[in-house]
Amino acid sequence: MKTLLLEHGGPMLYVDGNREIPDWAAKAYPGNNLTRHDTMMYYLVNYPGTDPIASSYYCSNVASLAPCMLGGGTSVNAAQQWWPPRKYLDNTFQNFTGWTGDDFQQAIQRVADRIPFTPTWSVDKKHYYDQVYDLMGSVFESIGVTEVNTTTDVDEKYNTYGRDVFAAVGGQRGGPLLGYLQDAKKLPNFTLKMNSPVTSVIRTGSKITGVEVNGTVITAKNVVLSAGAWNTPSILFASGIGPVSELTTAANINFTQYKKKDWIINNGVGANLHDNPQLSITFQYSNSSELPFYSLSGVLAGTNVNKADADDLYYRRTGPLAANGRELTGWINVPYPNDATKSMTAQTICSRPTAVNGSFTCQFNLNEGLLSRGRVALGENGNLVFADGVGPWLTNPLDIELYATALKKFVDGANAYPGLNVTSPAGTHDLSFYTSFVNQTGKVGNNHWGGSCSLGLCVDVNTLVLGTQNLYVIDGSLSPAPTTSNPAFLYESIAELASSRIISKLGF
């Protein structure tokens, strides 16, 4: 078996050929190999609007943020690496043969072996400027949320809290680019071609014979799409595969070469799109000197970088510049009002102060159990949009109710803690206030996209696209529902399990 990996964009890490080392760092530390993607020091400036170059890392055809470079989201995100809990796997995949919690365990372990996860970025295993952990840990304890070891108690993500965990290797960004790709590149039967965007598969009826890249057809015996929850549907639409509504649009704007008689109707393409709504909760602690801030403002230009800290990072991969400042993650589980056997989980991520002593932020997401969904659609200009202009956030009233319940519990606990004040949303309120607050401000995405080519809807249990003979999908779009936390580890585990099923099916 020979494998050709066609990557839409270019490299992001130094090891793969990226050389975006900030000028000041190249001069101060000649010969260093830390690009703006290899170290967490720069990760916040890799989002559009923070730096003119940053927008080039993202797909221009998508209604939200979707990285279009080697590594996808794992090359620009905060590298949080959360083991998918057994309860989530059992509940979410129970109806798919070969995808039970038991089936997942070996796949998960293979990911863990290749992508180690750790609560510390600094190679000396120390936490820096992490005082917010103890403070907010006390708040969580006061509302009945207990501390766990997040690297060993991997299934305990319900009414628990602990250290944030990351795919970090040697004080730098880890993830699949290091854990998988570097070994793959050593294989004689593997070829990587970057800057090679696939626009369509080529097929005769249900049999795929190749793909189109930059106007050139490349033949293939089998094709696996891994373009993500947005662009996997895009490629399928262009290939004449999807719902009638999107294929009609595709035909009208010449987005597809396939005539109506050759369409493969698959209503699962683009459906079940999910993401985590988020809020930002801000705090002020009266004993501000106990929570000193550490700023990363100006790091790209080198205008606000402590020399000793920079030396620690560049020479030893230690110190506060090695980390991204996320210190604590907690999970508040909220049962359904009339059925305690069902619940939703709100995830809280608290970070160190970045500008003013004592002033910090916790991100508040609605994760496992949420019911709201959206759909990827094709716009009249060929770009991807939300169907009916509605994103997948808080469209179900039960999501709003339980999200607000979790938020009230968290905010009430914080306001009751001596010296700690919630500055947004400020004050003490009843549930109706938080319901309105969530409904008005919580429809903001996390870019934890999944579900747009889900198991059972778009593909079968071998991830074969329904209606085709030899077209498969392996990416986050397979996920039927959001997990408790940031989904990278889940999607990598899905990829491991899907790969083994495809290899077995093809007889390799």
Overview of the structural elements:
- Keywords: FAD, Flavoprotein.
- This protein has 508 residues and is α+β, with helices and mostly antiparallel strands.
- It has a domain of 181 residues: Cholesterol Oxidase, domain 2 (2-Layer Sandwich), CATH 3.30.410.
- 25% of the residues lie in helices and 19% in strands.
- It contains 11 helices and 20 strands.
- The strands form 7 sheets. Strands 2-3-14-15-16-13-19 form a 7-stranded mixed beta sheet, with helices on one face.
- Helix 3 crosses helix 11 and helix 9 crosses helix 10.
- The protein starts with a strand and ends with a helix.
- The relative contact order is 0.17.
- The mean pLDDT is 97.
Task: Tell me briefly what this model is.
The protein is an alpha+beta fold and 508 residues long. Helix content is 25%, strand content 19%.
Characteristic key phrases:
508 residues, alpha+beta, Cholesterol Oxidase, domain 2, seven-stranded mixed beta sheet, 11 helices, globular
